[in-house]
Amino acid sequence: MTATTTETPAAPRAEPPPRGGFLRSPTAKFVFIALLSLLLIVPQLMVYALKDERAGRRDEVVATIARDWAGPQRLFGPVLLVPYTVATSAGTRDGLPYTATVETRTAVILPERFALAGDLAAETRRLSLYEVPVYGATATLTAHFGPVGPEHFPGDVRGVDRARAVLSIGISDLGGIETADLAVAGTSASLESGVGVAGGAVGLHAALPAGLLDATTAGGFDVTLALRLKGSGGFQVAPVGRTSEVKLASNWPHPGFSGGTLPSERALRPDGFEATWRVPQLARNVPQTWTAETEGYDRFDGETVGVDLAAPLDLYALVDRALKYGLMFVGAVFGIVFVLEILSPRRIHIVQYALVGLVLVFFYVLLLAFAEQIGFGPAYAVASLATGGVVTAFVGMQLGGLVRTAVAAGAFGALFGLLYAILRLEDVALMAGAVTGFVLLTVVLFATRRVDWSGTAPAGT
Predict the structure, then answer these.
(1) What are the chain's domains?
(2) pTM for the structure as a whole
(3) Is the confidence at residue 144, as pLDDT, over 50?
(4) What is the pLDDT of residues 84-108, one digit of tens each?
(5) What is the Cα–Cα distance from 213 to 81, expressed in whole angstroms?
(6) For the region Disordered, what residue ranges are annotated (predicted)?
């Protein structure tokens, strides 16, 4: 007798549970890393504040040197100041004319022709960590004044006091004057402190030779001023003539031309520069004569021409620009590490990402600290080698494999090099940043096309 057996149907094989749910998926980690990148803005802002504090310290040093040497020099003049009296109200009383008030005013008369030829012998002065460009200037100013006539005195003029007329020269920092020799109509004239009129301007003035305005009514007169003075930072000249020509030369190779008009001619050389400005009266918003009681010498604010002795490299400006790329920079490093991680069987904890982010923040601290000592370029090399080396070593040890380590080193090196290029090549910074971002996104897109972003695929698939 044969026994019959009944086969029990096999139970369906259970699917393996997900690998850990959404919170352990690549998508969740991507979100956490993005939030971490935003949180790291806070320590970057602290570095930004440190940069501002150091830049403020630099400005204090510049002010100290300017106080001890001389500050930026601004020359105005020579101009002619002529007192006159004018009736401010008049009428008739009992059929007879009368003047109620007579007051004294001062006419400011600008020259017909003005020229300045100057040479700035520049050098640097060092205090603490900082170097400041200073200069010793030699300048010759020449001016020709036309006849002084009724057109220079508006209003109901009752008298012109030509005997009390003076020449006025504005010089912003009198402490920088070494010598000043004035000749009026071929005669040496004595200079005194003060511009010769109320109004807050700083400078010198000189009385005219007796009878000069009366004797030269037909032809006017010439003025020559030879100056030797010190200054720092910049040198500005007011084009006071109906026609003005300013020529400046210097041994400083990094001029920053500034003021209301750029040079008509300029020549830049490794050992200095030469520049010439030609400014007609029509090119400036200042008349040839006005009354000192209503307008001051500040009418030429924004109308001067000149040069700033710019530092060849403002390290604080470069650190500032580097910090502005901070979010993109940290995000790019995180992106490189994240892609290497998801293509590896090993994992990096989010806390370790935070530590990597703090290392990247210290890149800016190292950059700022070393730049003050050895300059921006060498400091950038030190900071990038230090932080890039640490992050590369960590990625290699955490994820394993020489290939991943080499890829990380190459990617970080390219990223640091690109950031340096963006900082130094301001004109193409936007294009370089845009192309870099596009290339990085393209690489990530294709490198992660097989990644299970949901984290729910069965093990082994």
Answers:
(1) 24-57+316-447 (no CATH), 72-91+100-312 (2.60.40)
(2) 0.74
(3) yes
(4) 888 877 666 666 766 667 788 888 9
(5) 12
(6) 1-20
The type of residue at 56 is G
Tokens of 4: 């019959």
The pLDDT assigned to 244 comes to 95
pLDDT at 454: 61
Higher-confidence residue of 346 and 135: namely 135
User: Quick one: pLDDT at residue 201?
Assistant: 77
72-108 b/e (C-beta count within 10 Å ≥ 16 → b): bbbbbbbbbbbbbbbeeeeeeeeeeeeeeeeeebbbb
For residues 350 and 334, the answer to whether their CB atoms sit within 8 Å is no
pLDDT of 5 > 70? The answer is no
What element of type H or E holds 60? helix 41-68
Q: Are 134 and 71 in contact (CB under 8 A)?
A: no
| Bridging pattern class, strands 113-127 and 130-145 | antiparallel
Lowest mean pLDDT among 175-184, 190-199, 243-252, 365-374: 190-199
First to last CA, the chain: 50
CA dist list (Å): 357 to 26, 38, 114, 366: 19, 11, 61, 14
CB 170 within 8 A of CB 195: yes
Kind and range of the H or E run holding 395:
helix 376-399
Cβ atoms 221, 237 nearer than 8 A: no
Place of tokens 């950038």: 380
Token pair 């001016």 is at which residue?
143
Angle at 329 between CA 327 and CA 331, to 5 degrees: 65
Cα atoms in the Cβ-side hemisphere of radius 13 Å centred on 352: 14
Structure tokens at 52: 């501002």
The secondary structure of 144-198 as a DSSP string is EE----GGGS-SEEEEE-GGG-EEEEEES-GGGEEEEEEEETTEEE--EES-SSS
Task: Please give the helix or strand (H or E) that residue 233 lies within, else none.
Answer: none
Cβ proximity of 292 and 197 under 8 Å: yes
Instruction: Spell out the residues 6+ positions from residue 129 whose beta carbon is closer than 8 angstroms to its own.
Output: 58, 61, 372, 373
Reduced to 3 states (helix: H, G, I; strand: E, B; else coil), residue 121 is strand
pLDDT cut 90: percent of the chain above it: 33
Give the phi and the psi of residue 254 in degrees, each rounded to 5.
Answer: -125, 65
Tell me, what amino acid is at 143?
A
pLDDT at site 6: 52
What letter does residue 250 receive in the DSSP assignment?
A: E
Reported confidence tier of residue 145, pLDDT bands at 50, 70, 90: very high
Q: Which of 147, 150, 184 lies closest to 167, judged by CA? A: 184
Residue type at 409 in one-letter notation: A
Alpha-carbon distance of 302 to 180, in angstroms, equals 26
